[in-house]
Design brief:
- The chain is mostly helical and 104 residues long.
- Strands 1-2 form a two-stranded parallel sheet.
- Helix 1 packs parallel to helix 2.
- The termini are far apart.
Length: 104
């Protein structure tokens, strides 16, 4: 399985890039990670309709932070860092639960 990272900075070329990949022999894209770039979702669905599409975690965090009050922001950042520093998957689940109860 090949891993190719294609960084798209402008939404105008998304369709041509996707078609170019297909023309060069890419038969299937299994997973894509996107930031909500205009046109990207439609281009992936048109060329690779079975691809799993995920939003980039950094963009999810950035979009979520705007809903946290300024007084809670530093605490949230510390808590988020604890998730990324946690080596054990079961611990990550517990940390997420605690964060969800605290912030939501």
């Amino acid at each position: 399985m090949a891993e190719n990272n294609v960084h798209i900075k402008d939404g105008t070329d998304v369709n041509s890039i996707m078609n170019n990949l297909k023309n060069r022999g890419v038969e299937e894209i299994l997973i894509t990670c996107m930031d909500g770039l205009s046109g990207f979702l439609q281009a992936i669905e048109a060329v690779c309709p079975h691809a799993e599409i995920q939003q980039c975690i950094l963009h999810q965090i950035r979009n979520s932070i705007k809903y946290v009050s300024y007084k809670d922001l530093k605490k949230l950042i510390v808590d988020l860092k604890s998730i990324y520093a946690t080596p054990d998957e079961s611990m990550i689940s517990r940390v997420r639960t605690v964060l969800a109860l605290f912030y939501f």
